[in-house]
Amino acid sequence: MRKLKLALIQMCSGIDPARNLDDAETMIRKAAGSGARLVLTPETTTLVQRDAEALRAQLCDPDSDPARLRFSRLAAALKIDLLVGSMAQKGGADGRAVNRAHLFAPDGALTAIYDKIHMFDVQLGEDETYSESAHYAPGSTAVVVQVGNAQLGLTICYDVRFAALYRRLAQAGAEMIAVPAAFTRPTGRAHWEILLRARAIETGCFILAPAQGGHHEDGRNTWGRSMVIGPWGEIIARLDHDEPGVLMAEIDLDEVTHARARIPALGSDREFTIS
């Protein structure tokens, strides 16, 4: 058996990056102290800010971002693999920010970054509109990276609605797929669990989904309900609330092989046309 003890960090990040960093570190240390070897934080871990000018004023260059340095040192001090679900940074080719995940190894090395590919541009109602692409440049590269003796695929939030990305990650070797998120309450209530379980079933992967939850300082409300889903679509662990917290789980990566042997759909693609 290939057992892995992991933890998801659920947050309610605000508009002060320093305070968000302190909150994240407290929970990451708690998770590591409980035995987690892989710890994942949610989307926009270091800043939830809807005001465009305020967001731009707080963006850092990736190489000089104090949050990146702090998370690197924390991973090394705790000897854990640490996925920071995303941080807003400078870096878009056209001057926009990037919504970027960072994976740090137990020695503190930055082993992978992933820029969110699919932008959340939706109008949920007359008073609830999101135009992520106005502020963030989308990524164009999917990422699968080695974590211990397993392969981890990286996605962020709205990516979960694009099944083709998850299939490609699984076919590229991913056994776990991270879905750090800041889901809105209306879409979270309706779709969060369903989408996560569907992606697990389709890919035969473990789905690891740490979330933002609650009422944020910038006025945003997010769904929470962080969860770990098994490759057969079963819920292994979940938080049933929006409050900050640490969700611990132990998974057996051999279950991926078993699930895919039962339903070998990843190797059964066929070409087709639409008439």
Task: Supply the key terms.
alpha/beta; 16 strands; Nitrilase/N-carbamoyl-D-aminoacid amidohydrolase; six-stranded mixed sheet; 27% helix; 275 residues; globular
- Please give the CATH architecture: 4-Layer Sandwich
Q: Helix proportion of residues, in percent?
A: 25-40%
Average pLDDT level:
95
Rg, rounded, reads 18 Å
Q: Count up the domains.
A: 1
Strand order of the largest sheet: 5-4-3-2-1-16
The computed structural class is: alpha/beta
Largest β-sheet summary: 6 strands, mixed
How would you characterize this protein structure?
With 275 residues, the protein is an alpha/beta fold. It has one domain: Nitrilase/N-carbamoyl-D-aminoacid amidohydrolase (4-Layer Sandwich). Helix content is 27%, strand content 30%. The protein is built from 6 helices and 16 strands. It has a 6-stranded mixed sheet with strand order 5-4-3-2-1-16. A 6-stranded mixed sheet has the order 8-9-10-11-14-15, covered by helices on one side. β1 (3-10), α1 and β2 (38-40) form a beta-alpha-beta unit. The longest helix has 19 residues, at 185-203. The termini are far apart. The relative contact order is 0.17.
Helix and strand topology:
Elements (H helix, E strand, L loop, with lengths): L2 E8 L6 H17 L4 E3 L11 H7 L7 H13 L2 E10 L6 E8 L5 E6 L5 E5 L2 E4 L11 E5 L2 E5 L8 H9 L4 E3 L6 H19 L2 E4 L3 E3 L5 E3 L3 E3 L5 E4 L6 E8 L1 H9 L13
Parallel strand pairs: 1-2, 2-3, 9-10, 10-11
Antiparallel strand pairs: 1-16, 3-4, 4-5, 6-7, 8-9, 11-14, 12-13, 14-15
Helix pairs in contact: 1-3
